[in-house]
């Protein structure tokens, strides 16, 4: 239950999205809030499924095993 750094999470998110889709602009990702354990991520409505897919691929952030929950 160690909090992760915002910068590490964002880097992981960007790298994962780029590896899967090759670009970011069509997703419209924007991190609204992040406290190390919980966050609010916005995306384009049309990119919701792709964004969920990318988040489900994340299992490590900054060397720490991570579980991303989508509500």
Description:
With 71 residues, this protein is of the alpha+beta class. The protein contains 2 helices and 4 strands; from the N terminus they run αββαββ. The chain is 37% helix and 18% strand. Helix 1 crosses helix 2. The chain starts with 5 loop residues before the first helix and ends in a 6-residue tail after the last strand.
How much β-strand is present in the residues? Answer: 15-25%
Describe the largest sheet: 2 strands, antiparallel
> SS-based structural class?
alpha+beta
Radius of gyration over all CA atoms, rounded: 11 Å
pLDDT below 50 for ≥5 consecutive residues: which ranges?
A: none
Backbone shape: globular
State the end-to-end CA separation: 19 Å
Amount of helix: 25-40%
How many distinct helices?
A: 2
Q: Which H/E pattern describes the elements?
A: HEEHEE
| Strand elements, count | 4
How are the strands ordered across the major sheet?
A: 1-2
How confident is the prediction overall: mean pLDDT? 93
Observed structural traits:
globular, two-stranded antiparallel ribbon, alpha+beta
Write the layout of secondary structure elements.
Layout: H1 6-21, E1 30-34, E2 39-42, H2 48-57, E3 60-61, E4 64-65
Antiparallel strand pairs: 1-2, 3-4
Helix pairs in contact: 1-2
Quick description:
With 71 residues, the chain is an alpha+beta fold.
